[in-house]
Structures are given as structure tokens and as C-alpha cells.
Amino acid sequence: MSDPVIRFESVGKRYPQYHHITAGFKPFLFRWLCRLGRTGSETFEALRAVTFEVRPGETLGIIGRNGSGKSTVLGLIAGVLRPTSGTVRVRGRVAPLLELGAGFHPELTGRENIFLNGILLGLTRAEVARKLDAIIAFSELGEFIHEPIRIYSSGMLARLGFAVISSLDPEILLVDEILAVGDMDFQKKCVDRALEFKRRGVTIIYVSHALDQVQELSDRALWLDEHTVQAWGNPAEVVDAYRRHSSPQRGPDGGRPEAPGGEAP
Amino acid sequence: MNRNTRQFLDLILVLTQKDLKVRYKNSVLGYLWSVANPLAFALVFYFAFKVIMRVDMEDYALFLIVGLFPWQWFSNSINISSTVFLSNASIIKKVSFPRNIIPLSIVLQDMIHYILSLPVIGLFLLLYQKPAQAAWLWGIPLLLAGQFMLIYGLALAVSSINLFFRDLERIVGILMMIVFYCTPILYPLDMIPARFQHWVGLNPFATAILGWRTLLLDGRLDPVAAGLTLAYGLAALGLGTWIYSRLAWKFAEVL
User: Fold this and answer.
1) Chain A residue with minimal CA distance to B102?
2) What is the rounded radius of gyration, in angstroms, for the C-alpha atoms of chain B?
3) CB–CB of A102 and B249 under 8 A?
4) pLDDT for res A178
5) Would you list the domain boundaries of chain B?
6) pLDDT for B168-225, tens place per residue?
7) In chain B, whose CA is at the least distance from the CA of A73?
8) Which of B14, B162, B247 to mutate to test the interface with A (most CBs of A within 10 A)?
9) A98–B94: do the CB atoms touch at under 8 Å?
10) What is the ipTM of this complex?
């Protein structure tokens, strides 16, 4: 079996309690003049001893309650966050599927936004130019590609975003609860596109609350709760364990009230 | 050129282009609107100081214009850059790219805008019968470079720190106003009382403005003003880069 493309080894992530810093001038001076760029003692633990690995071409679904650290895992894979302890190893080009409209400018046309977004995500101008026709065709936007995207519907925006992402030819695709937005029709389209990536051998890491979807699409599932791994492996078993854990008293989606400041940034 | 450098340059280009396009789009008079601001300021100050308070100064309108255009570059860039990481939170949290490109594109965009408004200043110089000078050939690029480094360094520092200390954007607004009146833009250097004179050299904005004024009005490059502007520029660039490099990896944590 081939080497893992993503490997987390007892990864811990603590966030400093930044509201102490943003609170006022005195703590700011105290903290920043003394130790610029170091974390303080009051921290919030987002992840503890998280270990898992993903092999090339696998699809990993991450489930868990809000604030359990799912987005933090994606941030660590994308390289925008650094682990506090343990090691994160990622091999290959990572592309995040952005929220609707992120990395786009509403006043620019679809075509101009393809360049903006594509380059932001790591392509050069020449590469975008070469792929431009394919991207426009993929987006199915037709003449709308010459209109400013502020007039686009959310479905059109998503198609444009997806079209740019597909042109990146990513090796690892990160999807953060995107499949949950939009109507049924749009969701189905997204799933189709995701499956297309999967067929192309792209490793997909996605966060979802749709448990049936996770069971259906994933090769493996990761259940995070209490900031650490509760289960990892066969999606059916993991989803089952999650369901059993959360259903009896706590409602359908494990709906315990969110801890204050729960959702990790 | 290697692919990473190419990609980096393309990123700067496309972001700067975006800012320029957005600025000039959707209005017929796009370019005129953006030179209108400093010109309107010049008119207001001219009216207040020359017409009403009757300051005894020759060519006061021209004097104001030459100082207000470079000031506009300063104040626009610094004010916008204080919140620039906040307004790009959604991509900073998801994509790992060099974040300093965002304030850089803002400062570049304002610099291009300043360069584009130099002909307007030239027009006024012509009206006041001040001919073009050979010293502009090396003076303008030199002062542009110094002022660019100064503004970019400060923008980098302000934008980075503001993520961790959000009051900064308010403080910056107030500071910019104070600095504006402490900088010899509305008044010439020799009107400043002797006991304050030696403080002027400590104001990096003042050295740049004085540099521009001697260059454009007197047609010579003041070596002290130009040298100080470059030195302040390098210092600001170093400081800004240092602060940014210490904080950048934590941006996604605080957004």
C-alpha cells in the first residue's frame, strides 16, 4: 500500500485566548512588548492527541459536533495553522474549496475573477490563461462570464468556484461543510463534482453533518469530539458509533448546546 | 524565471490590478474622481488660509497641490491597510499564500495612482510657469522608492498588529490627522518656529513631502530630504517585515 499523503501524529492545537489581547491596551502592552509572537498561558484547547492518516485517493469524512475541532484539522492540512504539539505531514498540492464568493470580488466579471481566484490558489497567469476556456466551459456560465459576479446567483457563484478548483488539478481537496448549502439540485451537483474528483484519484477531506452522505462517499471517517478522536476508520462503524453516542438523550445531531466560544476559528 | 517567483509576481499583479479596476470601474469619470479629492482639499485650504486668513505666500495653490497629492498616497494606504487582513479573512483562513501581498497590492495601487496624478501636478506647474527640470528624471524615482518603502513598511506593521489589537485602526485614524497637521504640507518649513525646527527631521512624512516640494517647485533634489526619506523607508520596511514575520503564522488563529 502506498505511503500516506496526510499524516497526523498526536497533534495538539491550542489557541491563545486572544480576547484578552484585543480587550485593551494594558494586556496588549504587557504581552506584546514582553514576548512578541509568543503564546500566553491562557489557552483554549482545540485538538488533543489527534492521530490519523490518509492514503492517496482516499476520501475522508470528518464528523462531530460544532466546536469539536473539525475546521482546525482542515486548517492544519491547508497549512494556515501550525500545530502546538505533534507533527502534521502533508504531501501534495492542497486546494481548499472556498466558501461562496471567498477570494472573488463582486465588481469584477466572472472571467476576471477566474484569474484572481486561480492565482490566489497557486496558479500562474499563464496557466490560468491556458485553462481559461476549460474553466469557463466547466462553469456552464455562458455569456454571464462577462458580467460582474455581484449579479450571479449563489448557484452560479458556486459553479464558478468549483470550476476554478477543478482546474487546479489538486492532489488533496479540502471541503468544509460546503455540501450542506444550497438546494437539493445544487447539492447533488456538488456531490457529482466531488465524485468526479474522486474518480480522478484526488484525495478528499471533507467536513459534513450529513451522516448518510459521509457513509456513502467516504472510504474512511473520522469522528472528533471533546477535541480528540473518538473513532477513526470504516465509515459505517464510525457513523454508527457517533449516532449511538448522540441519539438517545441529545437529539438528532448530538445537539448539546455549544460550549461558549466552541467553534474554533 | 522559476515558477514560484513567477507565481508570486502574478499574485501581486492580479491583486493590484483588481484594486485599480474596482477603483475606476462603474464611474465614467473614474480617474477624475480620484484626483478630485486632493484638488478639493487644496481649494478648501486655499480659501481658508489665502483668501480668509491672508497668509503671505506666493503661489500658495500650487504649494498645496504639490504637498497634498503625496499625502493622499500616505493616508489612503495606511488607513485602508489597517483593516485589510480583516476584510480578507475568508481566504486567509483557508489558503496559505504570502499574506503580505495584500497590503503590498494596496500600497502599489496607491503608488500607481499617485504616478498617474503626476501629470495633473505638471499641469498646475505649467500654469504657474514652472518648467520641467532634468532633476525630475532621477529625483522622482528616488523619492517614489523611498516613500514606497516607508508606506509599505508602516502598512505591513499596522495591518499585522491590528489583527491582535483592534483598537489600532482607531488610533491610526487619529494619528494620521495629527501627523497631517504636524507635517509641513499647509505651511512651509521656514514658518515653523526655530525651537520646533529640529523636530521636523524626525517626521518621516515631512522629509518626503519636503523632498517632493523642492523637487517639483525648485527643480532640484534636496540631498538631505531625499537621503532621510530613503533611510526612513528602509527602516520602516525592516520594522514592518520583522513585525509581520513574527505574527503572520498566527493570522488564521485570530480571524
Assistant:
1) A120
2) 19
3) no
4) 62
5) 3-254
6) 999 999 999 999 999 999 999 989 999 998 889 899 999 999 999 999 999 999 999 9
7) B94
8) B14
9) yes
10) 0.86
Question: Chain B partners of A265 at a C-beta cutoff of 8 Å?
Answer: 93, 252-255
Place of cell 457563484: A157
The shortest CB-CB distance from A36 to any of B93, B246, B252 is to B246
Q: Is-contact A246 A254, C-beta < 8 A?
A: yes
Q: Are strands A6-16 and A172-176 parallel, antiparallel or unpaired?
A: unpaired
Query: Quick check: A92 contacting B, CB < 8 Å?
Result: no
Contact B95, A120 (CB under 8 A): yes
Contact (Cβ atoms closer than 8 angstroms) between residue B100 and residue B244: yes
**DSSP code for A145:** G
Within its chain, how far is the Cα of B141 from the centroid?
14
Q: Residues of chain B whose pLDDT is less than 70?
A: 26-28
How, if at all, do strands A220-225 and A59-63 pair? parallel
Contacts A106 to B, Cβ<8 Å: none
- Is B243 in CB contact (< 8 Å) with chain A? yes
Distance CA(A171)–CA(A174), nearest Å, equals: 10
Cβ of A96 and B26 within 8 Å? no
Range 29-48 of A in CB contact (< 8 A) with B: 32, 36-37
Three-state secondary structure call for residue A232: strand
- The alpha carbon of residue B72 and the mean position of all alpha carbons in its chain are separated, in whole angstroms, by 6
Nearest to A122 by CA among B42, B194, B98, B128: B98
Answer whether A242's CB lies under 8 Å from A211's CB.
yes
Q: What is the pLDDT of residue A36?
A: 52
Question: Helices B3-24 and A125-139, interaxial angle, to 10°?
Answer: 60
pLDDT per residue as tens, chain A (265 positions): 578 999 999 999 998 776 545 555 555 565 555 555 544 457 788 899 999 999 999 999 999 888 888 889 999 999 999 999 999 999 988 988 877 778 889 889 999 999 999 999 889 999 999 999 999 998 888 999 999 999 998 888 888 988 898 888 889 999 887 655 556 776 777 778 788 889 989 999 988 888 888 888 899 999 999 889 999 999 999 999 999 987 665 444 444 444 443 333 3
- Residue recorded with cell 438517545: A248
Measured between CA atoms, how close is B88 to chain A, in angstroms? 8
